[in-house]
Amino acid sequence: MELFELLNFYVIPGIVLGSIYALGAVGITLIFAILRYAHLAHGDLATLGAFIALAVVTGLGVSPLVALPVAILATAAVAVGIDKVFYEHLRERPKIVTVMASLGIALMVRSVIQVVWGVDTETYSRGIVRPEDYFGLRIRDREIYTVVALIVLVGGLQLFLTRSKWGKAMRAMSDNPNLALLSGIDNKKVVMLTWVIAGGLCAASGFFLGLNTELKSMMGWYMLLPMFAAAILGGVGRVEGAVLGGLIVGIAEELSVLVIPSEYKAAMAFVILLFMLLVRPTGLLKGKVL
Amino acid sequence: MELLGLVNYALFMAIFICIYALLALGLNIQWGFAGLFNAGIAGFFAVGAYTSAILTTAMDPDRIGGFDLHFIVGWIGAMLAAALVAWPIGKICLRFRSDYLAIASIGIAEIIRLVIKSEPALTNGARGIASIPRPAGDIGYMESQIAYLAIVLVVLIAAYILVERQFNAPWGRMMRAIRDNEGAAKAMGKDVEFRRLEAFIFGAALMGLGGALFAHFNRSITPEAIDPMVATFLVWIMLILGGSGNNRGAILGAAVVWIIWSVSEIATDRLPHEYAVQAKYIRLFLIGLMLQLVLRFRPEGLLPEPLRGDLRSTKPGADR
């Protein structure tokens, strides 16, 4: 029974939380590797995705899962738009300037959310969902959806990156931008594709956080640190590393309450981040270090 | 009466500008001199504020301290504490590109926020620490405001002179060399990591001092006293708009941004309540937009960084 308690109350929530982090971390790792800067507005873009889904759910009265694709597409469009309007002209300047701009974008996206949807806590559906019993494991449907979505989305992305022409172009840009440009890869298209993918995954991440907990205007910002910890833990530029990192950070956060006061759960990601930078900055799967 | 209120408001604003100017100066050491991205300004600010509060308040059985020390001790303690927090972070992150420092500094600000919220033995929890002695605080209200402004001004001018001296000294030249061409500076035998760490710690200490000045002015410090994201961001826009790498620019930026920020607050406070909340976020949006516009159209700021090398090698006015 002890084992089931551990699994039901810590490991399963950890995997769900980890899947949410992983969805965001994949986008962060792609941006870090291909565009070569830390994108600090990632968390707030995730919040935006979650609230767009909320607008679809309340506006059209459809189930949240139907709203997800809409949110993914809309957030991807917003991400591309932000890049075009705010980041594109900073491309020739030192990359750290774009990091700063992204901090400003984080504030702007959040204030748009706060103006449009207010600062109150929202949910996609009311009422308590009771978990179902699978041979002693207590799992809610939405938790299954989260993990399935992670597998489908990241699996699809991995196929795209390894099999398609544009996916290969993206990987080439990440490995060696000069060589990639020299061999005729269209930088603009690669950048746009990166934003479409990162924005879409971001929205999915925010959506599932909202589905499993609640929607708050600050939720994405608080998710930023775990997502970065996951990306660096897995190795910058490695999609499968980001997934692995996300799951480890999520499970570590949930398990940490067994040893440290629960108020400091959020500190776990920070500890992992510093520890990785200290002992193995390339991450578990040998990513790159900028 | 009307005039008195106005004078009082101006004093209030001037004190805040001085405090923010100190923060901007601290950030200028980190970003302007050394190119280090610190997104956790509010964290160092809070460390300074609480340290000084603990050192200078009267004994309180509910928490650690009050040690009832002189405020000067409190302020020095604030600087030391902020520097001490900056040290391990810098030590770990400064080996890499500044992006990592940006992430880690967001993290450290977050941890500091958590500690303040959940360690009542240290910070008295949500109620915060009250009755912090204000220097020259026991004379009349107006006199005390004026006296405090004078004290803050003296601190700011002292900090400005010291930082400016540092900027013109070989140390400052070396920092700019490291910022602009790390490889070349390394080849000249400069210990890049250690120098960056120095800049990061000096800057953090100034931010801690800013926090202490704020706590003593307010006479209390609570977790809600400042919004971490807003404060951090305001300091950034102050420095970028004023001109990073230019100490006078940092101070000018602090004045301009703070005046815009607080005057716009007066404007939005007059709105009916249901719009007032939204107006607050519209102000935040506009301040974010302002950063984007400055970065795009005037990245060097109002007062650009002086390029002393050019003056020496060319005749005055030859570059025009």
Compute the separation of the termini of chain B in Å.
52 Å
Largest inter-chain interface? Answer: A-B, 47 and 41 residues
Structural class of chain A: mainly alpha
What is the percentage of strand-forming residues of chain B? under 5%
Report the uncertain regions of chain B.
311-320
Query: What is the straight-line distance between the termini of chain A?
Result: 46 Å
**Helix percent band of chain B:** over 70%
> What can be said about the biggest beta sheet of chain A?
2 strands, antiparallel
Please, what is the oligomeric state?
heterodimer
Q: What is the H-and-E element order of chain A?
A: HHHHEEHHHHHHH
String of helices and strands of chain B: HHHHHHHHHHHHH
Mean pLDDT of chain B: 88
Counting structural domains of chain A, the number is 1
Query: What is the architecture of chain A at the second tier of CATH?
Result: Orthogonal Bundle
Organism (chain A): Roseibium sediminicola
Protein name (chain A): Branched-chain amino acid ABC transporter permease
Family (chain A): Belongs to the binding-protein-dependent transport system permease family. LivHM subfamily.
Keywords (chain A): Amino-acid transport, Cell inner membrane, Cell membrane, Membrane, Transmembrane, Transmembrane helix, Transport
